Every structure is written in C-alpha cells, then in structure tokens.
Amino acid sequence: MTKHWLRSLFVIMLAGLVFAGCATTSETPEPTEPVEVDVEEPPPPPPPEPPEPPQDQNDEGIPVYLGTNRLLPRTFYFDYDRAVIDPDDLSALEMHATFLNNHRDRSIVLEGHCDERGTREYNLALGENRANAVSTFLTSAGVYSRQIETVSYGEERPADPGHSDSAWTRNRRAVMNYR
Amino acid sequence: MISFFRILSLGLCGSSSLAFAADTLDTIIIDAGVDNPVRIAVVPFRQRSELDGLPRMADIIGFDLARSGQFAPLDEENMLSYPTEEKEVFFRDWRILGVEYLVIGRANLEFNGDVSVSYHLYDVANERQMLNDRLTAVRGKWRDIAHHISDAVFEKTTGIRGAFATKIIYVLARDAGAPSATFSLEIADSDGERARTLFSSREPILSASWSPDGRTVAYVSFETGRPGIVLQDIVSGSRELLPQFKGINSAPVFSPDGNSLAMVLSRDGNPEIYVMNLKDRRLRRITRHHAIDTEPSWTPDGQNLVFTSERGGRPQIYLLELKTNFIERLTFQGDYNARARLLPDGKHLVFVHRRNGVFHIAWQDLERDVMQVLTKTALDESPSLAPNGTMLIYATQDQGKGILAVVSIDGRVKYRLPSSSGDVREPAWSPFINTLSEG
Predict the structure, then answer these.
(1) Measured between alpha carbons, how far is A114 from A158 in angstroms, rounded to an integer?
(2) How far, in Å, CA of A176 to CA of A92, rounded?
(3) Residues A100 and A35 in one domain
C-alpha cells in the first residue's frame, strides 16, 4: 500500500514538473503525455550475511577485548593477606569466562603468588587461595573445571624482586596463562 | 686467611662424588655475645710442616667458641707463652691474663697419611686438666676434627653438648625475581665453610629439613612445574620425588624416629596436614578444616604435631595430639604466629611472630606462657634449631639481600652468615651427626 501511494505521488510530482516547464517556455511544448514511470522495486537486499564474529583472540590465541587488538588483563592483584577478587577485575574475568565458554578446547593455568611477607609455606597456601578464588569465579560463570589448572608459587616467583610496598603490591597476584 | 681456608677446603673435598661449587656463604659476622663471656686461650697447635697448608686448627676452634657467644678467646699476640704439651704449661702465665680455660694441642701425620691431633683442656684457676684426647682421621676431615674438639671443650666447660660439628642446609637463589633465576640446595658446615650443592634447578626450592639420622634431607622442589616433595640422600646424592598430588605438596618434616614424614597436601581442596609412613608410603590425613592448615612439626616424643592454622581467622600455632586428634591453640599474642619448631626439651617453641607489621623470630615457654621476641631484624623467617637447642638459625634480609643469621635462645648472642653469591634462605640445622666417621 505504501508503495502504491508513493508511486502516485511520484507521478503527480512528475506531472507538476512538466507543467512548470510549460509555463516558462512557450516555444515547443512537448507532448506531455503523462508517463507512467514504472519505479522498480529496489532489489531485495542480499540476505544478511551471518555477522562476522568480532575477533576475540589475537594471533597467539590470547583473548582480546571483542573486536580490538587489546589483550584482556591476565594478572589480577590482591590485598595484603587476602584472597578476595577485586571487584574492578570482575568484568575482565567475565570476558575470560565467556571466551573459555566459547572455546571449550582452550584451557588455562592459574598461578597464585604472594608478596614476601609471612612464612613461605603459609604463602604457598595463600597463593593457592588466590588462584582458587579466580578459578571459582570462572567455574561459576560456566567454565569447565577441566579447563583450569591452578598452581601456587607462594612468594617464590616475585614479579618484582624489590622489598618496597610497590613491589609487594605487584607481587600479590593471580596470573592467567592460556595454553 | 679466610680465602686461604676456602682454597684449601676445595682441594680437600675434591674427592666428593657430588659437584663442588665455590663457597656460597661469606665469613661470619659476630654481632653480639653474652655480657661476660668466658675467657679462654686456644694456643696455636704445633702442626707438622706437612700440615702447613691446612688452616690452623686453633683458629677454627677459637672461632667456633667465639661465635657461640659464650667465650672470648684470647688473641695470640697477647699470650705470654705458647705451650703445645703438658710440660710447657705454666698456669701463672694464664692466670695473669685472667684466662679461665686453656686449650693446647699438636697435630701429626700418621704413616698412612691420616692426621692425628692430641689436645688438652685445662682449668687455669684450679690448675687441673679437664680433657686429654687424641683424634685420628683422614686429612680431609681436618676441619671436622677441629669442630669435634670445639664440641668437647664446649661440653666440658658449659655442661651443654656442643653443636659445632654439625651441618646446615639452605637454599641459594641467584637472580631471584628474574626469568634467569636459579635455585640450589646447599650444604655447609655449621660455620658456613665447605659449601657444596646438593641440587640445583631453574624452579624454586624451599622447606628443607633433615632426617633425624642426618643422612637424608626432604624439601619442596618445583622442578615439575608444581610443588613436589623430594627426599635426597646427602652422601650419594640420589633423589626421590614422592608421588605428586594435585595442588600443594609441601612442608615435609621427618618424625623424630625417622619413620614418618609430616607434610601438607591440598589434594582435597585446601591445605591439610598428612603423615606418610615412609616404609609403606601410606598417607594418613591429620587435619580436617576448611581454613589453611600448614607448617607441621613434631614434638620431640613424636606424639604430637604443632602446626600453623588459620582456623581462628588469623594464622596461629596449634598442637595436635596424634592419638586423639585433640587440638589446642598455643599462641595468643599478636595476629600472626607461624612456622613453629619445638626445642629439644619439648617445652619451648620458636616461631615467626608479626609485631607492628614486622616479622621477627620469637620464643615461647609453653608451661609459663611467656613469649619473647628474639630478633630485631625484619622479614625474619624459617627458624631452625641447633640440635643442642641453644641457638637457632633463621633467614632474614640485610640491605635487600637474603642472608642467614643465628641467634641464641636467650636472644643475647647473634651472628650473621651473608652470601655474596645471591639470596640465601630456608636454613635447616642438622641433628647431631658423626662427621668424623661419615661422609
């Protein structure tokens, strides 16, 4: 219906144009038979291609923010003596979960680390709690536990060998390594 | 002189079946002793010229006694005479100098190449001989002979068995924190001399401990990419990696009878204490708690374990009776007490204690419930007792580097064993061993 109405409008406008032409030039009035302009329907758009899935990993298979080249953060920091995930890390962890849910063949190793304060064995346990905190988040978001391996290094593998607050902040972490 | 000792000990131990690395501990630095140390004179021994290349026995003995903090050896320059046998001793020479005890001796070479050392200990005030003995051993045992004499002198004069002729193991980390980091388990004399490498790896090593017979060490190695418990024979060097379970496999400690190994496994989801029977390798789970349970250690009678647990919300030390599984909390001061070891009397505990955010080594009398902080340094950890219970060795930091330090149980005597080779940590003092007959 809409198309018909449009077509009629078109015809009227065309006629009006012709009439206007006549009014300005009186010389050779051309035969002005109203032309039936047959406006063809535009070809139907090609069936929508299945949308290109936005890129979710780089060439090395490491997850990126969708459609970008920016890697998702893979190191998550913890407060002193704590094994609680920072709320600011939840969205990145959600994206890792989505990635792992979309790629069931992929798996990760979660390393848990501590700063040097406190005894080594206690820190080994604390590092495991940190790795487990991340692991629990991922499995509750649907990641299969077979996709996750955890290993605690305690305080044995500092990211920063210094002995300052800033070094300690960098060392209290869980690191996600994709395989 | 020390570098001279070093070169020599290299030559002496060349026959060892294990690789021999350069010494990884530097000279001991003595920081504090008792207020009125006993004045003793260790007169230079008469050494046969064939033994000239060896370090001076009197120096080794004198340094042992000095680092115990209980003795102030008289400088050689201040001696009025240099007796090496009984008939040359004039007690007034020593009484004038205020010397309480006198040690003299001589070293000879046996026809078979062994060395024999005769020595005497005198009580100067009473003009009395207290010891007269002779030790014979292969030339490579020169330092061991000296430490045995130190032990005998210490025991005779203090009534406490000496622990100089013992060993320490410790972890040396080079380039810690860098991708090129290497870790090695080292063994050395209790004075840090004659260090050699038992095992080295690109992966971390920690929690070294001794079997009660001093033949085997247990430790945690990440050589498989995850923590595993290794048993290693210190003489043959042979190693055995215990079956690795998922998660943590760590904190191995031998029972006093040597038949069992307490350890921590997190195979059931979180760290729990287990005891492995070393004969049939059967495991018995000891703790059941969702909080961290770790760092087990045995009471000297083997009937109980002390361990660190977070079950009260913060790490504290608990005692568990193995027969009944009855658990009792031992520490109440402060919010971080961990990695406890009991003294040989079973009535005193040493552990890591956090005070004002700083980690120190502390001592606690379990009967009177008295606690004392022994160290003033920071990041102190891993206390390990000498087998006579008079001193403990621990790991600390000095100018950003990991070093070993020793403190007496009363906190008065202190010395340090730094390392130029890297960070040293995770020390464990051996039990009493017969270093003259073994190795």
Answers:
(1) 8
(2) 12
(3) no
Q: How many CB atoms lie within 10 A of CB B116?
A: 15
pLDDT on residue B428: 98
Q: How many domains does chain A have?
A: 2
| Average per-residue pLDDT for chain B | 92
B167-429 is a CATH 2.120.10.30 domain: yes
Q: How many helices (H) and strands (E) does chain B have?
A: 4, 31
Rg of chain A over CA atoms, in angstroms? 33
For residue A143, give how far its alpha carbon lies from the nearest alpha carbon of chain B (Å). Answer: 18
**Which 127-146 residues of chain A touch chain B by CB within 8 A?**
128-129, 132
Is A85 part of a structural domain of the chain?
Answer: yes
- Residue holding tokens 């990695």? B339
Phi-psi sector, B192: left (phi>0), alpha (psi -120 to 50), beta:
left
* Identity of the residue numbered B404: L
Domain regions of chain B by residue span: 33-158, 167-429
Per-residue confidence (pLDDT) for residue A44, from 0 to 100: 73
| Candidates A121, A158, A160; nearest CB to B207 | A121
Site from B170, B202, B270, B292 to mutate, A interface, most A CB atoms within 10 angstroms: B292
Q: Is B247 on the interface with A (CB under 8 A)?
A: yes
Cα B419 to its chain centre, rounded Å, is 16
Asked if residue B272 has pLDDT above 90, the reply is yes
Among A109, A110, A121, A153, the strongest candidate for a mutation testing the B interface, having the largest count of B CBs within 10 A, is A121
Q: What is the pLDDT of residue B177?
A: 81
Q: Which of A128, A154, A161 sits opposite B247 (nearest CB)?
A: A128
Which of B207, B226, B400 is closest, CB to CB, to A120? B207
The angle subtended at Cα B2 by Cα B38 and Cα B62, nearest 5°, is 15
Q: Quick check: A143 pLDDT over 90?
A: yes
What CATH number is given for B33-158 in this structure?
A: 3.40.50.10070
Q: Does residue B209 contact residue B382 with C-beta atoms inside 8 Å?
A: no
The partner residues of B85 in beta bridges, in order of sequence, read none
> Which pair of structure tokens corresponds to residue B157?
């004069």
Whether residue A169 lies inside any domain: the answer is: yes
In-domain check, residue A54? no
How many Cβ atoms are within 10 Å of B245's Cβ, its own excluded? Answer: 16
Domain extent for A12: 1-49
Q: Which residues contact A165 (CB under 8 A, 6 or more apart)?
A: none
> What's the confidence (pLDDT) of residue A133?
97
